[in-house]
Amino acid sequence: xxxxxxxxxxxxxxxxxxxxxxxxxxxxxxxxxxxxxxxxxxxxxxxxxxxxxxxxxxxxxxxxxxxxxxxxxxxxxxxxxxxxxxxxxxxxxxxxxxxxxxxxxxxxxxxxxxxxxxxxxxxxxxxxxxxxxxxxxxxxxxxxxxxxxxxxxxxxxxxxxxxxxxxxxxxxxxxxxxxxxxxxxxxxxxxxxxxxxxxxxxxxxxxxxxxxxxxxxxxxxxxxxxxxxxxxxxxxxxxxxxxxxxxxxxxxxxxxxxxxxxxxxxxxxxxxxxxxxxxxxxxxxxxxxxxxxxxxxxxxxxxxxxxxxxxxxxxxxxxxxxxxxxxxxxxxxxxxxxxxxxxxxxxxxxxxxxxxxxxxxxxxxxxxxxxxxxxxxxxxxxxxxxxxx
Length: 389
Hints:
Layout: E1 2-8, E2 14-23, E3 30-40, H1 43-53, H2 60-81, E4 89-100, E5 109-113, H3 116-123, E6 126-129, H4 133-137, H5 146-153, E7 161-166, E8 169-175, E9 188-194, H6 197-206, H7 218-221, H8 227-233, H9 237-240, H10 254-267, H11 273-293, E10 300-304, H12 311-320, E11 325-328, H13 339-353, H14 360-363, E12 373-375, E13 379-380, E14 384-385
Parallel strand pairs: 1-4, 4-6, 7-10, 10-11
Antiparallel strand pairs: 1-2, 2-3, 4-5, 6-12, 7-8, 8-9, 13-14
Helix pairs in contact: 1-2, 2-3, 5-13, 6-11, 8-11, 11-12
């Protein structure tokens, strides 16, 4: 079966789309990426999504307009990735606006902006969406959901293998080795903390809106890393808490950036913008390195996501993860911007096969379950998909 997978992450820079063919068994399928595109959000839409993700007040009607605009952008990404209409199925994560993991006082909840039935109409194919809800209903975090796909698509090696996504948030998957006493251990995965969220927000602020990210980490490379502040930040409750755990822009957003900049400049008034960026970038690497020290030590770390293009971030990651081979996931045939879109294509394929897509050891749910809701287009026998008048 051919499936289009769509993913737009915490960085809110656009939609990654892949067209992939799946076959064989569900547990370890055969797969081939046939095409992939990166479909950027229009600037005004991105700004509105960032504002919504920061919790800025917005009328209900504007949220409806925003959901429709996101859905239309997702449909455009499908058309760009699969112009010939080869895929029978689309797996779409939608755009996360707010994520609230469960606590002792309330259930977990997560809001992915999308109009699933509308997307099915626009693309004329079945769409699987709302992937987090079933896991949340079972007491899980609803995230991360990619580790199960990592285990199926990448698989084990001779020792523990870690996969890292450097998107807006840094998240890890840890796969047990193919042999030896640990081979029967469960896979694990969690959100480490910020990867690009704080850095991108700082760059946007310091450049007065001219820049959205630090190209190749060049700005940060001119600054001084405040190791003492990083060491203090790593002792904060989120970073010391064990998995399962998940997070997003609601925790590591504008308010968190303000707090960290104030902390840096209070301790060292001469701290300039390059110093702030250097410290925030190194902090993103440090949260990953600290998490890996607490787990079975992997022999290699496969890295994907937009952060791989930040040379300063990658250098910091290698420096702080000494003894671990750090290399791009692209060397295994999955490019930086393909990994998560590929995962949601697989989750959609699994949903059709009624194969569980969640991992209780990752999310903390009571049991594994099939993920996602399927919407089908309303077809007229002679005219095909019904379009709005």
